[in-house]
Design a protein that fits this description.
With 213 residues, this protein is mostly beta strands. It contains four helices and eleven strands; from the N terminus they run ααβββαβββαβββββ. It has helices spanning 3-15, 20-25, 81-84, 125-131; strands at residues 27-44, 50-61, 68-77, 90-96, 99-105, 114-115, 133-148, 154-164, 170-177, 191-196, 203-205. Strands 6, 7, 8, 9, 10 and 11 form a six-stranded mixed β-sheet that branches. The protein has a five-stranded antiparallel β-sheet with strand order 3-2-1-4-5. β8 and β9 form a beta hairpin.
Length: 213
């Protein structure tokens, strides 16, 4: 990076300007906003709207790559801040493939649906299904989260009551991939066979086993 590039980057960092080259050429990914702090720096743009410099903390997922954390300094129109401060907001991001610390939010693009990489070994879904303790869970609620597993099955946030196979029933929220064949089982009150790993949150629904009795 040359002297003038460094000066330009420093100015963007102060004012929250966006790296246009990164927006144009960066790899498209999905970012969940997990933190947002506002600075005192504002800029009035040509349309008269005030933009405020913000620092975003993001969980970033690129297609078939492990998720990672990123901090992004970027200007946002103040009228859009209340929406961005809601829990669970996702945005499209552009990432430098060679340097994952370089991330920009692409507000002009819808967040893409991405696939998670396959995981193996202890703690993976396959391992828990093979060696975990059989339990019965009751579905309280479910919501697709905009990502898929490596097979292309959509991942849902499942709110479950662990009803049988444990000393004391409890409620938990987990992310599980849901194949198309299991969609008829997705309704509140559905009793499902599942497997429990080493921790109370390590629960994988055994969709192939069908509904529990």
């Amino acid at each position: 990076m040359g002297l003038f590039d460094s000066i330009a980057k420093g100015f963007r960092d102060i004012t929250g300007g966006v790296d246009q080259e990164l927006l144009a050429t960066g790899e498209l990914g999905r970012g969940e906003i997990v933190g947002l702090s506002l600075s005192g720096t504002t800029v009035t743009v040509g349309n008269g709207l005030v933009e405020r410099n913000c620092t975003f903390q993001l969980n970033v997922i690129l297609d078939l790559q492990p998720p990672f954390q990123a901090s992004v300094n970027q200007r946002v129109q103040e009228i859009n801040l209340p929406q961005l401060q809601q829990p669970g907001v996702t945005v499209a991001v552009r990432v430098d493939p060679a340097d994952h610390s370089r991330v920009a939010i692409d507000f002009a693009t819808q967040p893409p649906e991405v696939r998670l990489p396959e995981t193996t070994g202890p703690g993976s879904a396959a391992s828990i299904l093979e060696t975990g303790k059989p339990i019965v869970v009751v579905l309280v609620a479910n919501q697709p989260i905009g990502v898929k597993n490596f097979k292309g099955d959509p991942v849902h946030a499942l709110t479950l009551t662990v009803a049988e196979g444990v000393e004391t029933p409890y409620q938990v929220q987990v992310g599980n991939a849901v194949p198309a064949s299991a969609l008829p089982l997705l309704f509140p009150g559905s009793r499902l066979n599942a497997k429990l790993g080493d921790g109370p949150n390590e629960i994988v629904v055994d969709w192939a086993a069908g509904a529990a009795k």
